Amino acid sequence: MESERYNRQIILSGFGKEAQLRLLAAKVLVIGAGGLGCPALQYLAAAGVGHIGIADDDHISLSNLHRQILFSTADVGQLKTAVAANRLREMNPGIDIVTYPISVTKNNVLDLLENYDLILDGTDNFESRYLINDACALLSKPLVFAAVSGYEGQLAILNVADDQGLRTNYRDLFPVQPGAGEIPNCAENGVLGVLPGIIGTMAAAETIKLITGIGKPLINELLHYNLLTQAQYKMSISPAQDYTLPKTKTDFLKMEYQDSCGLSTGYTEINADQLQALQQERSVLLIDVRERHEVPILNKEIFTQVPMSEFDNFLLADIDAENIVLICQHGIRSVAAAEALQEKYGDSKNLYSLKGGIIKWRDYFSTT
Amino acid sequence: MEIEIISFGKISEFIKPQKLEISGITHTDDLKVYLESSFPKLSGMKYKLALNKQIVQQNCEIANHDTVAIMPPFSGG
């Protein structure tokens, strides 16, 4: 270890050589080398985190440069992971950096996380965030969650047991992944470059605190930050009961993580757990689009029956409900019904189709 | 009774931080119904409440001068 390089932090009271050795031994995976990932990577590398993984499949574009400060104008068009790794190696040749120029999916995420002690999520979409959360929960990997919107940021440490042995994950905050277009992303909403700079740097600070054991990291806490007022608001998170996480690799691979900001379908396919969570979270109109003779017969007080053969008539009247879940035997006609509603209402309603239908989730329906 | 409302992100565009006089509302579930009917945009969104800086996971009793924060999920990076 180069003591001189790290001298100013080693001499800190409460830090010392021991903390520095912990950093050197740590394996941190940063997913997303963007506005949050760049500053986080810079400080983690500079501080001497010994093993850093960088996962991102994106190439650098000109509109990234105001906030993704590892990249320069000449890098436009290059792979983010390659340029970031080069810059970080120049900055600190004493650490090991591995790049993954891939999109993180449910098929590769478990293998990817396996090699790391701690994950920093700096991605920019809900699909990745729920995927990473569920994978970290399954593998019991500490997750530093950082996200921004407009002039505000959110930061939390998830999946780390507190003094009482309690651990929380992102679904304890938001059990169901938002649908397409529900929450605007940076590309649609805009972002001042310095905001992910601040939140990404805070995420690096929390990572360093967790690794070295200094201070009081944001375990089971959500920090909300407002750049315009410099206000910070810290809330404590406790485990919720209204969702289930995949408990095995097989369950995980069956999860649906819809692309909520890319290929917009106008409706979201959900599973029975998401349906249950939706029902508990807000008022939803549940529509069974099967014909009247089909079995099993569902409780008509809960499920409104509108057979597909009558659906055109149904579309003539206006529906007040904001949230509509469509259900059929196998989840195919319900997609057609969701598309018909989408055509009529556009994005003004949240439309869901139960993927796999009543047959797939028969246990759920037999108890409803 | 009077409670203080704090709002974050997109929600703060239609629910401004404010002192709110509520009558007949004693629990967070009732407050959600009230907020969703007073601010219809909220019912179409994912959001979470925090009562006095504790994330609300079940129906909680609200007392005079409590603070309720309303937040949407953020995904940007």
UniProtKB/TrEMBL annotation, chain A:
Q: Which SUPFAM superfamilies match?
A: Activating enzymes of the ubiquitin-like proteins (SSF69572)
CDD domains listed in its UniProt record: RHOD (cd00158), ThiF_MoeB_HesA_family (cd00757)
Any one Gene Ontology molecular-function term assigned to this protein's record = ATP binding
Q: Which UniProt keywords apply?
A: ATP-binding, Nucleotide-binding, Nucleotidyltransferase, Transferase
Residue ranges annotated for the Rhodanese domain, each copy included: 280-366
Assembly and partners?
A: Homodimer. Forms a stable heterotetrameric complex of 2 MoeB and 2 MoaD during adenylation of MoaD.
Q: Mind telling me which PANTHER family this protein's record contains?
A: ADENYLYLTRANSFERASE AND SULFURTRANSFERASE MOCS3, UBIQUITIN-ACTIVATING ENZYME E1
The text of the family note is: Belongs to the HesA/MoeB/ThiF family.
Indicate what this protein is called per its UniProt record: Molybdopterin-synthase adenylyltransferase
Q: Which organism is it from?
A: Pedobacter metabolipauper
UniProtKB/TrEMBL annotation, chain B:
Q: Which InterPro entries match?
A: Beta-grasp_dom_sf (IPR012675), Mopterin_synth/thiamin_S_b (IPR016155), ThiS/MoaD-like (IPR003749)
Known SUPFAM superfamilies for this protein? Answer: MoaD/ThiS
Family annotation (Pfam families): ThiS
Domain of life of the source: Bacteria
Q: What is this protein called?
A: Molybdopterin synthase subunit MoaD
